[in-house]
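Residues determine shape. Take a concrete instance:
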Amino acid sequence: MSQQTSEATQGSIGWGRKIGYGSGDFAINLYWQGLSLYLFYFYTDVLGLPNYLAGLIYAIGSLWDALTDPAMGYVAERTRSRWGRYRPYLLFTPIPLALSYLLLFWKPDTTSITLLAVVALAGQFLFRLCFTIISTPYSSLMARMTTSSEDRAGFAGARMLFAYLGGFGVVVLAGLLLERADNDAQGFFWLAVVSGVLASVILWLCFAASQEPPETPETQTAHLSLRQTWQSMRANTPFLIVFAAILFMVLGATVIGKTVLYLFEYEMNDRAAGQQTLLLIAVIGLAVVPFWTWVTLKTSKRFVWMAGSAIASVGLVALLFNPAQSSQIVQLNYIVISIGTGAYAVTFWGMLPDTVEYGEWRSGARVESMIFGSVTFAQKAAVAASAVMLGFLLDVIGYQAGAVQSAETLSGLRMIIVLVPLAGIILSVLAMIYYPLSPRRHAYIVADIERRQSAQN
């Protein structure tokens, strides 16, 4: 066994490599948070698209993104190069990804709703494809670099620190550029330019800092057919549970970020406080990731998911019944919610690699890229569903972009902001109750796989 392979197995990967790998999520989230926090608002209040059409375009893009994830996982699993299976995509994709992001936030000089919708949809298809090509291999890389559950908790913690830094960076950039731009369209376009340049540089640094262990007879996986791959995944109970929990959690939690600007601009009449709240959400997430990482190492990923869900639910219920018209008091609700949802950031990516070994242990087939691709499919399908639902619900409550909203509309908005995320969180908890992989059981599974491989050799 090579030194690098031994390091990956025994849990001795240094923090320098973990930080180098994790930095890639700063770049990923410059894009992802830009979409999550601003694109729906850009569609309705900058492009002027009808609510239902904005939701439909966003949903089509997310579904396209979701459908390409398993396909990209299948391709990446079969990639072989001098840089490894997954690292080449960090090297060659950043520039196309940055250019496609410009199209996503471009407002054509036209008032035709049809033309605006066509351009918006084209941007969705192109950007989402490029994003999939880089994000699925990037996520799969963690499972390949180590089989140590402790190291994976460290990798996940580093990832999420940089993910929240990326979200923080997006909000800061958006605030600065929107404030200095002649109009919102110009501000959002320059946000896309600056984000693309920063993300490209950081992804190249991540490529240089990350390493894949060399291919050996033990790590070479037979090329399974799609049918064999799906059969292996269907028998992987922990994966199916994580898949369901992520689907429900993202379906609900996505609405939290998408509706912040609507709440503060139309109910609180304080758009600046909305930007501050998005900044607070990023800062709180950044602050609690080390805490949740520590709790994960002391307890289990399942426990952290449950604890975070309980805290987020308390914050959501408090927001529903908070009658205050002070922006600062409402921001406190979002702080509590963010403390809770920060737990998902660690457990989301910490659990997923562990299900790879469980599947290998049960079926003898290691299909890490397909597992990561399928879960990101669930994540993005949930984002698509939330966009359609949000557009539909905004129409139901009578929301009109740029207009003074009625009391009934504002009350309906508050219900959407609270009840949709709360339902998603509760359903994710019901799924996670059955998650069977404790740290001790996962360590046993990894050791048993190694014993089998040694016996075969």
About this structure: The chain has 17 helices and no strands.
